[in-house]
Amino acid sequence: MSQPALDFVIAALEKIREKSDRTPRASRAALARLEDTPRATSLREACTLPTQRRLETPNKAELLAAVRERVTVCTKCAHLVSSRTQTVFGVGNPNADLMFIGEAPGADEDQQGEPFVGRAGQLLTRILKAMNFAREDVYIANILKCRPDMPAGSFGNRPPTPAEMQTCLPYLVEQINIIQPSVLVALGAVAVEGLLGTRGTMRELRGRWHAYNSIPLMITYHPAYLLRNQAPSEKRKVWEDMLLVMERLNRPISERQRSYFL
Ligand code: SF4
């Protein structure tokens, strides 16, 4: 084959590969016949290299940033838009193996724009540290991206309603699909209800593996529960759940960690 003709074939194959998910094919005999031509390597690569090697790896941080932009201006829940200081998207490593899911921002998170920064968040950070993780290693997000509104003059936080969670859930689903963590941890029964649409008691749900879209899901108590209930037995339950998570992630577990109490 002449050089111009070969260039034409290579360009055509490149175009096919770029425009479709499939790699163009050529028979072994055809490739063998082209072995001696100077452009054989280019042609062979165009026909045989997997498409993924040629396409740029999607940048998870950029994909998440695009979702964050939509969340920042989201007005689907008018009552929450008028009461929120800002949306609370999520924080952490876009390539995380481990992703934590809570229910909704509280007053501290609404002010700071970051999930799990209040007292419960500080306890979560301590739990992560005991697991030999930094906050930056994992990804943390809530089902709801806006703080549930409270009656004027009242303090504290309220749990999100099932309707609010259903409205906001698609954003979390996008986050999970982009990050593709190896393990998910749902913190508290409300987060489980938002994620799986099922109600249950923590006694029934925690301490064993569930799945969300084929991703292993561990369910454990929300750190706020541990702040309200300081019984060592309850803290130990959460820690045992985290040991299961570490095992699932093939993280080394020391004897000290095995006998640890939060
Ligand atoms: S809670 Fe979610 S769906 Fe509702 S306004 Fe906030 S970002 Fe939008």
Shape: globular
> How are the strands of the biggest sheet laid out side by side?
1-3-2-4-6-5
**Main beta-sheet annotation:** 6 strands, mixed
Termini separation = 72 Å
Helix percent reads 40-55%
Given as residue ranges, the uncertain stretches (5+ residues, pLDDT < 50) are 38-43
Strand content: 5-15%
Kindly name the structural category.
alpha/beta
Give the number of helices: 14
Could you say which small molecules are bound to this protein? iron/sulfur cluster
Reading the helices and strands in chain order gives HHHHHHEEHHEHEHHEEHHH
The whole-angstrom Rg is 25 Å
Total number of beta strands = 6
Mean pLDDT: 86
Task: Provide a brief overview of the structure.
The chain has 262 residues and is an alpha/beta fold. Helix content is 50%, strand content 10%. The chain has helices at 3-19, 28-33, 40-48, 51-54, 60-72, 78-83, 107-112, 119-130, 162-179, 189-196, 202-205, 223-228, 232-248, 255-258; strands at residues 91-92, 98-102, 139-142, 183-187, 209-212, 215-220.
Give an overview in words:
This protein is of the alpha/beta class. The chain is built from 14 helices and six strands. A six-stranded mixed beta sheet has the order 1-3-2-4-6-5, with helices on both faces. It binds iron/sulfur cluster. Iron/sulfur cluster is lined by residues 71, 74-77, 80-81, 87, 144-146, 167-168.
Task: Spell out the key features of this protein.
binds iron/sulfur cluster; 262 residues; globular; 14 helices; 6 strands; single chain; alpha/beta
